[in-house]
Design goal:
This protein is α/β, with parallel strands linked by helices. Among the domains are: about 320-415, Luciferase, domain 3 (Roll); about 425-515, ANL, C-terminal domain (GMP Synthetase, Chain A, domain 3), CATH 3.30.300.30. The chain contains 17 helices and 27 strands. A hairpin with a 7-residue loop joins strand 7 (about 160-165) and strand 8 (about 175-180). The longest helix is centred in the first third of the chain and has 19 residues, at about 30-50. About 45% of the residues are buried. Bound molecules: adenosine monophosphate (AMP). Adenosine monophosphate binds near residues 311 and 428.
């Protein structure tokens, strides 16, 4: 019975040991190498920690070593947590505080290893690299017995990874996903899209973003290949397109914002630019029909799929294969549920809505649901509720906070958000997290942020005696990653309040729009 994602790595490495599994800018790793190196890491982590089901942080980069470290941690019976150390140190510390990892592995190619971490090079030494087959065990790098004992005790509901997302109270939340959630995801994707061992995925999303989970595990399941695109290419759309052609990429599972880099800069001339491309799948935010139409016009032969879902339901719970033309101003549906996910619209009392055109909150149940937010019971209880209309036995349900409605064909169409969560440059951001950082700045009395969707700008309205944008940015740079810094700053002597005595965000937004055309 398959109950661990690495069962597929074992199968692939036995079936196709010398097939390329992971490629990055430093080279290529075969399935056999990936499995062996991961088992070396697994042995080390298991011996050193002596625990299972505990978090191990991985300081990630856009490289194959990050993925091998993830698998190693899974072989040790623990779960991995990708951490991007290029974020401001205060935020990294907040994440590590919430996490209390039993170990940290630094997977970067760097001389300056993250404080308190074991570097990948210390684990995968020159001796390990020179080993093969039986040598791994005879030299003591891999303890087959230890790893198989750990595996035999594991259940499918054990945690596999945790990914941190922005938190409205200022502290990022660690979404904890199980093996079962990911198995459910890859089986559903297989049923819908039939990947095979010829499939070449181009990884775009950083490994601390759940879009990347689909590359890793769909590829593992179908014994395909992942090519990790270097970060710098996303600043040169034409070079990115050439890269896709050179690497014979046939499948993109990308964030909308990444696909838009190519369409906004009109980096395609025709299908010959990327002759192997068969599937273009996107998620994370609304795909403007205009951008999609550009892609379709340039590469009409590809299949385009809108994927929808938050990190908390293991990547995606609905999909829509684009099966007709859309006008530039039309909304592209997020579609219907994947097999084995229940996706419903619910009113404010959580009663199911079935009528077309009526807006409700998108609520999800099924094995795809996260185990919760790590070490955060309060936020877990807020978002993962029990269906009040199923009194006979408890049914867990995740309230996405997204609003949607059914179109004429019964597809769900994403309408808007219920709260202050936004998507900006592909990043999920709680405006509350930016506000918490702003309000901790001593010279600011109070501030709020709003998001101007049409111009894709975060606007900060702050109350202070004098203009102090430069000073605010200097303070924010210590606390938040750059993508979370507001794009505009507007000073007020006193911020206006609404009838309920709260800062009047609506008024602030409309005044800003009036003053800025
Ligand atoms: P994340 O957890 O980073 O994947 O962000 C999840 C949120 O992104 C969802 O709750 C939605 O608000 C938004 N989102 C994801 N996919 C789509 C989509 N296809 N269309 C519109 N919004 C989306």
């Amino acid at each position: 019975m398959i109950r661990n994602v690495l069962d597929y790595l074992d199968i692939d490495a036995a079936k196709a040991p010398s097939k390329a599994a992971l490629e990055d800018e430093y080279g290529c790793m075969t399935y056999s190498e990936v499995r062996s190196f991961a088992r070396v890491i697994g042995t080390f982590v298991a011996r050193k920690t002596g625990v299972t089901d505990k978090p191990v942080a991985v300081i990630i980069d856009r490289n194959a070593r990050s993925v091998v470290s993830f698998f190693g941690i899974v072989y040790s019976g623990n779960f991995y947590v990708p951490v991007d150390a290029s974020m401001p140190s205060e935020r990294v510390s907040l994440i590590l505080e919430t996490l209390s990892p039993v170990m940290i592995i630094d997977a970067r190619k760097t001389d300056k290893v993250f404080e308190g971490a074991v570097s990948y090079d210390e684990l995968i030494t020159e001796d390990v690299l020179k080993s093969s087959g039986e040598d791994f065990c005879s030299a003591g790098f891999i303890d087959e017995q230890l790893l198989s004992e750990i595996k035999s005790r594991m259940i499918d509901q054990a945690p596999l990874y945790s990914i941190f997302t922005s938190g409205s109270t200022g502290v990022p939340k660690g979404v904890l996903i199980s093996h079962r959630g990911v198995l459910d995801l890859v089986w559903a994707f297989e049923e819908a899209f039939s990947f095979d061992e010829e499939t070449v995925f181009c990884n775009q999303a950083p490994f601390d973003f759940d879009v990347s989970v689909k590359d890793i595990y769909n590829s593992l399941y179908c014994c395909g290949k992942i090519v990790i695109a270097p970060r710098k290419l996303f600043m040169s759309p034409r070079l990115l397109v050439s890269f896709l052609a050179e690497k014979k990429i046939d499948t993109l599972i990308w964030a909308v914002s990444a696909l838009r880099i190519i369409s906004d800069f009109k980096a395609l001339d025709n299908a010959e630019n990327v002759p192997a491309l068969k599937r273009v799948m996107f998620s994370g935010e609304v795909m403007p029909a205009k951008s999609l139409n550009y892609w379709k016009k340039m590469i009409p032969s590809a299949v385009y799929v809108n994927l929808y879902g938050p990190t908390e339901i293991t990547c995606n719970c609905t999909y829509y294969v684009i099966d007709r033309d859309f006008a530039d101003d039309e909304k592209i549906p997020v579609g219907k549920p994947f097999v084995n996910s229940r996706v419903e619209l619910r009113d404010e009392a959580l009663k199911v809505i079935t009528d077309k055109g009526v807006t409700g909150e998108i609520c999800v149940s099924g094995i795809c649901l996260a185990l919760g937010y790590l070490n955060n019971k309060e936020k877990t209880d807020e978002a993962f509720v029990t269906d009040p209309f199923n009194p006979g036995y408890p049914v867990r349900m995740y309230r996405t906070g997204d609003l949607g409605f059914y179109d004429e064909d019964g597809n769900i169409v994403f309408a808007s958000r219920r709260d202050h969560q936004i998507k900006h440059m592909g990043h999920r951001i709680e405006l509350g997290e930016i506000e918490t950082a702003l309000n901790s700045i001593s010279f600011l009395t109070i501030s709020v942020c709003v998001y101007e969707e049409s111009r894709e700008k975060i606007i900060c309205f702050y109350q202070a005696d004098t203009e102090c944008k430069k000073e605010i940015v200097a303070e924010l740079s210590k606390k938040l990653p750059k993508y979370m810094w507001p794009n505009e700053y507007v000073r007020y002597d006193v911020l206006p309040l609404n009838k309920n005595g709260k800062i009047d965000r609506k008024l602030l937004r409309s005044e800003w729009e009036k003053n800025n055309g």
